[in-house]
Amino acid sequence: MPVMRSVLVTGALGQIGSELVTALRKRHGSDRVIASDIREPAAGVGSVEGPFERVDCTHIREIENVVRRYDVGTIYHLGALLSAVAEEKPRVAWEVNMGGLYRTLEVARQEGSAVFFPSSIGAFGPSTPRQRAPQETLQRPTTMYGVTKVASELLCDYYHSRFGLDTRGLRLPGLISYGAPPGGGTTDYAVEIFYQAIRYRHYTCFLRSDSRLEMMYMPDAIRAMMELMEADPNRVVHRNAYNLGAMSFCPSELAEEIRRHIPDFAIDYDVDPVRQAIADSWPESMDDAAARYEWDWKPRYDLGAMTRDMLEHLAVRLQQRG
Ligand code: SER
To answer: Ligand 1: does its nearest atom lie under 6 Å from the Cβ of 187?
Structure first.
């Protein structure tokens, strides 16, 4: 039997990476999954349960060394800046998001590795239909984050058609999780609200009450990434990148759902114009028919199931932390 090549996750200490590493290690074994990040893990963090390498993806030698040393066959390239931070630092966002992907693809081309790329709801813009944004539609984002996401989708397509690289990607919605926090995204409110609801029964939201966006619970997102990378190559026609949907809600609806569990929970609003403008430029929902048809995608968590699970897990975690 051929020996399975290793899996590398960049940005492994981030919101997605920290959970993806755990899931991949369960599936392939701890030694086969290399976690990497530009930061060193804090003592006691899960990613030290297997190999960890410090990698700055804007330095090609650093990626190359790790890919060669561990014989990496698949790279989940998650190292990137999120939307609000990218708007604050557009130059850095271009260098990290584009420069990091470009160098990762170059190493993958030399070493024959497959690459997963996380695109986003942010790859759409104001001229995209806001409801059920189609798989193939206008993509004219107005943020630096969105510009890098569209360009990255195209770059991944190019490496596939020009060099035969197995690149695959997902347009992820806003992700909700109780593990590592997101760092500087527009959809972060849907994570913060749970922490504040449990601790203080109160949350001040930086988006308007009716700001509706596509969202997803992290276990669904992790499963989607792994299922996509394992899908039959002959079926993945829209490889870079698939629309992905699970639930679409606005802050007032999420607050209402939390109130079913915490009846005295209160929400008020102090709108941040920068993040509001970003949210207003994104679709409210995405049509994920291509993912459903081509690799049998199906979400498991809706708003009710996600809220229940978040509150249960987060209450335990916050109690443990004291
Ligand atoms: N969650 C991301 C953000 O808000 C969207 O891809 O930046």
So the answer is: yes
What beta strand segments (E) does the chain contain? 6-10, 33-37, 52-54, 72-77, 114-120, 167-172, 174-176, 202-205, 213-217, 242-243, 247-249, 266-269
Pairing of strands 114-120, 242-243: unpaired
Cα 298 from chain centre: 17
- Minimal CA–CA distance to 152: which of 175, 168, 136, 135? 168
Q: Give yes or no: 145 in active site.
A: yes
Q: Which residue has the tokens 């030698």?
A: 61
Interval 70-121: pLDDT, tens? 999 999 999 999 999 999 999 999 999 999 999 999 999 999 999 999 999 9
Tell me the domains of the chain and their CATH numbers.
6-173+218-243 (3.40.50.720), 176-214+246-284+301-321 (3.90.25)
The secondary structure of residue 279, as a DSSP letter, is: H
Closest CA to ligand 1's atom 2: 185
Q: How far apart (Å, rounded) are the C-alpha atoms in residues 20 and 11?
A: 10
